[in-house]
């Protein structure tokens, strides 16, 4: 009688894994089974790219017309939508009136005029001649305050994001910086003054999920500002996501 072929150790181990149906769940189960083996793990988007967005409601104007320091943490977990691209906001910075790091300090000029508009509009400016920086105007008309969108994670439209970014990856490097977010959304300064609460174009949507873990820290790249503004803890990020920008070691739990 023939001896049955011996199954490999790998096959035996695979058979012991829990029965799962998705590639992501299967990979997680394998990593837990073989946690003693160090290896590189690709970071997948936090939300499935097939997530449906019609049920996400556009945020109303009054949501934005509050102090930038109050608006900033409330924007965490909200969604930005333009065409087929939807991003989840994971990191922001608040810029307030009388803030020596805020563009409003220059007064109402052709460049800064959008930041003095009513809350809920976009303020997009060109940084270093390279990066389009998306800000969401806060507070009442004439105040001069905004929230900078520093980082996001992809929800839908990954291929479009990769094409615009010129980077074929699904790791956080794709969207962990304000210039990267502007590029992924295909923005230009012409988007300034755009109402983010109106259907079509660029919208801010409510994801319906509260963010439980929030990190705070000083804002990035404002060494020119007064010490009290350099040290102000006006940077906010979701605490349990890798989709945030550097430096991360200055962020602490709220």
UniProtKB/TrEMBL annotation:
GO MF annotation list: alkylbase DNA N-glycosylase activity; DNA binding
Entry's Gene Ontology BP terms: base-excision repair
Reaction catalysed by this enzyme: Hydrolysis of alkylated DNA, releasing 3-methyladenine, 3-methylguanine, 7-methylguanine and 7-methyladenine
Statement: the UniProt record of this protein carries the keyword Hydrolase: yes
Region spans: Disordered: 1-21
Keyword Ligase: no
EC number: 3.2.2.21
Functional summary from the UniProt entry: Hydrolysis of the deoxyribose N-glycosidic bond to excise 3-methyladenine, and 7-methylguanine from the damaged DNA polymer formed by alkylation lesions.
Name listed for the protein in its UniProt record: DNA-3-methyladenine glycosylase II
InterPro entries, sorted: Formyl_transferase-like_C_sf, MPG, MPG_sf
Sequence similarity: Belongs to the DNA glycosylase MPG family.
Organism: Brassica napus (Rape)
Key words, A-Z: DNA damage, DNA repair, Hydrolase
Record field: transmembrane: none
């Amino acid at each position: 009688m023939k001896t049955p072929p011996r199954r490999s150790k790998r096959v035996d181990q695979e058979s012991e894994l829990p029965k799962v149906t998705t590639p992501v769940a299967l990979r997680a189960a394998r990593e837990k089974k073989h946690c003693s083996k160090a290896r590189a793990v690709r970071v997948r988007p936090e939300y499935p790219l097939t997530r449906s967005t019609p049920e996400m409601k556009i945020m109303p104007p009054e949501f934005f017309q509050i102090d930038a320091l109050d608006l900033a943490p409330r924007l965490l977990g909200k969604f930005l939508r333009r065409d087929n691209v939807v991003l989840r906001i994971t990191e922001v910075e608040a810029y307030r009136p009388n803030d020596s790091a805020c563009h409003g300090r220059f007064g109402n000029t052709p460049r800064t005029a959008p930041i003095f508009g009513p809350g809920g509009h976009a303020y997009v400016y060109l940084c270093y001649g390279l990066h389009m920086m998306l800000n969401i105007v806060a507070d009442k008309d004439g105040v001069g305050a905004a929230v900078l969108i520093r980082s996001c994670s992809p929800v839908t439209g990954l291929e479009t994001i990769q094409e615009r970014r010129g980077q074929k990856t699904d790791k956080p490097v794709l969207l962990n910086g304000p210039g990267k977010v502007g590029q992924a959304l295909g923005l230009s300064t012409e988007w300034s003054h755009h109402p983010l609460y109106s259907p079509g174009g660029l919208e801010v949507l409510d994801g319906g999920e509260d963010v439980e873990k929030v990190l705070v820290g000083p804002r990035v790249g404002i060494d020119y500002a007064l010490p009290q503004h350099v040290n102000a803890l006006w940077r906010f990020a979701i605490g349990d996501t890798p989709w945030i920008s550097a430096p991360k070691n200055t962020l602490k739990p709220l």
